[in-house]
Amino acid sequence: MNDFGRNSSSAVATACLAHEPRDLILILPADHAIQVVPAFPLAIAATANAAEDGAIVTFGIGLPRLRNRDQLSSEFE
Predict the structure, then answer these.
(1) Cβ distance 57 to 51 under 8 Å?
(2) Where are the chain's structural domains?
(3) Per-run averaged pLDDT (10 residues), the chain, 77 residues
């Protein structure tokens, strides 16, 4: 979904290899803004059991909220 590569896949792979197989790893892109901050840790906690049971849990943003870095920066000026 990015307009150019961020080269994060090698960093994610390295982080995964540095942990035990049963560890839960939360990967957060630095170019995303969390709009409802109090709900975010609740969403993580609500999905932890599924992740512990082996599910891959992803959190995403809907297409109407996608913005490039310049648009996002201008919203917080």
Answers:
(1) yes
(2) 9-75
(3) 67 90 85 77 88 84 53 47
